[in-house]
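Try it yourself: sequence plus heme C, in.
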Amino acid sequence: MVMLLGLLLTGSLYAAFSPANADNEAKSDEALIQEGRDLFLVGCSFCHGQNGEGVSSQNGQYGPSLIGVGPASVDFFMGTGRMPLQIPGQQGPPKHPVYTQDEIEAIAAYVGSLGPGPAIPDESEYTLNLTGDERQEAIVKGGQLFLANCSACHNFDASGGAMPWGKVAPTLKNTSDKHIYEAMLVGPAQMDVFSNGNIAPEDKAAIIAYLNSIEDNPGYGGFSLGGLGPVSEGMFAWLVGIGGLVGFAYWIAAHTTRSQKKEEEA
Ligand code: HEC
Ligand code: HEC
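Structure, out:
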């Protein structure tokens, strides 16, 4: 009897509470998505369409479809201030974000509801949880991965570089860890997507730790000349180095006995 009563009680209690809980959670998600949709209609739909389907006009596209780009893309583009874009067409420069992080997360939830895509990463994913020698090894590996995969566009010390058609690959020195991780997941503009199958999450964290480590290091080589490599170093060699030699040659020519004789004759 007691057992039967107990089973009945737990059964009815479960029935009474569990659907209500599920309802609550669904509602708060729904509320977040609704809040995101309202913000989206005001700030983004002009270029990305009423339902995020994208807008194209005769003279090109205003904004691409956001279906399936995922919350990580929204968090990256809005968190680095690239979106909302002010003028259709040009590459959105990183600037101070205009939306709060809560608003960004609401819009990210809305865009995430349009189609599956990479989620906003958790802090544990983009921080390297190693110490001592293991940490040093991971940072060295991160550096090798950076040189192999990223330095072609972002320069060997992450100071950025020029891209074809007037575009730029920005410096990574002011970018937060989360946004570096998201950039790899999302591949903004001409940048490739580095999915987790391509560069594993812990290797992404190693790249980020490497980038932080070169930021903390002083330039041991003396003048860094902006760290732009052959361009600024070559310029330095031409202007100061060869320029100095040419100047010196003129000076020698002006002080030989022959040139002094000419002056006396004149
Ligand atoms: C003036 C037009 C315009 C407005 C307004 C605008 N966008 Fe965009 N958006 C663009 C263009 C153009 C691109 C592609 C540019 C690029 O890839 O650098 C883009 C790209 C994006 C991407 C990247 C898509 C991808 O393929 O990963 C996201 C996410 C995004 N926008 C979100 C937003 C959100 C959220 C808002 C509102 C807060 C917004 N945009 C407002 C024009 C606009
Ligand atoms: C083919 C060239 C290319 C390669 C390779 C590349 N990037 Fe990029 N990256 C870009 C371009 C172009 C942008 C700017 C996109 C924009 O403004 O919409 C960018 C933007 C970024 C940003 C955003 C910076 C900011 O402050 O807003 C980060 C972070 C980044 N890249 C990291 C990486 C990492 C890490 C790798 C290697 C795993 C990498 N990139 C490889 C071209 C590249």
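One thing you can check immediately is this: The chain has a mean pLDDT of 84.
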